[in-house]
Amino acid sequence: MDDQVSRLVDKAWGKFQQLEPGQRLLIAVAGIPGSGKTTLSQIVTAALNARHSALHPDAPSPAAFVSMDGFHLTRAQLSAMPDPERAHARRGAEFTFDGAAFLALVQAVRTPSDPPSVVYAPSFDHAVKDPVADDIAIQTYHQIVVFEGNYVCLDKEPWKSAAALMDERWFVEVDFGTARRRLVRRHVKAGIARDEEEAGRRADGNDLVNGGEIVGCRVEVDEVVVSREDGAWDHE
């Protein structure tokens, strides 16, 4: 774990220690496609849980991780749009997500219920290429929730309202050339593209177009994390 990640873990841990009973620490981790935001979110979540487990080995893990991927519109919803061909080609753009549902989830996690109850979030099944409803359980003992995604810090409604409910907003910064190389590898490996040429066209025509909006239309953030080209950030 590099120094900047260790510092973020320490910061989150310190805020966690200050929580009152029933309170939660909400962290948003944003960045362009290929930035490494998923990798960072998972590292921080695991590190917080490991630290807690070392101190309280019999207690449940306090940190949960929720990806924005579960809020993709379904393929059927994209097909029902006025321009379905464009909708499918631009899947991953802001308008191909259910931002209202994401805001509703953040509101449910932010506002304690009486009595406390489990909150469910969707996941994304890459095999069927569609979300899976209520697949992630945010338990009552989850006092830290790390939200990750392209638009979790976007200065546009309803994402802006969701970002305002976060205690910490982190942005993973990466140059577009590095992100493109990662995206090409990822698209070929996942079978999204047949070869690097096709993967490059997808990255240029969709992912990095979205990246321009993500960088240019960002709310104020608490931390900017530099994604390093050292292999550790290449797993997103």
Features:
single chain; 236 residues; alpha/beta; Rossmann fold; 8 helices; globular
Q: How many extended strands?
A: 7
CATH architecture: 3-Layer(aba) Sandwich
Estimate what percentage of residues fall within beta strands. 15-25%
Q: How do the helices and strands follow one another from N- to C-terminus?
A: HEHEHHHEEEHEHHE
Classify the helix fraction into a percent range. Answer: 40-55%
What would your notes on this structure say?
The structure is a single chain. The protein has eight helices and seven strands. It is an alpha/beta fold and 236 residues long. It has one domain: P-loop containing nucleotide triphosphate hydrolases (Rossmann fold). The protein has a five-stranded parallel β-sheet with strand order 2-5-1-6-7, with helices on both faces. It has a two-stranded antiparallel ribbon with strand order 3-4. A hairpin with a 4-residue loop joins strand 3 (119-125) and strand 4 (130-138). Helix 7 (176-189) packs across helix 8.
Summarize the structure.
This protein is of the alpha/beta class and 236 residues long. Helices cover 42% and strands 18% of the residues. It contains eight helices and seven strands.
Q: In terms of topology, how is this protein built?
A:
Layout: H1 3-17, E1 25-31, H2 37-55, E2 63-67, H3 75-79, H4 84-89, H5 99-110, E3 119-125, E4 130-138, E5 144-148, H6 159-164, E6 168-173, H7 176-189, H8 196-216, E7 223-226
Parallel strand pairs: 1-5, 1-6, 2-5, 6-7
Antiparallel strand pairs: 3-4
Helix pairs in contact: 1-2, 7-8
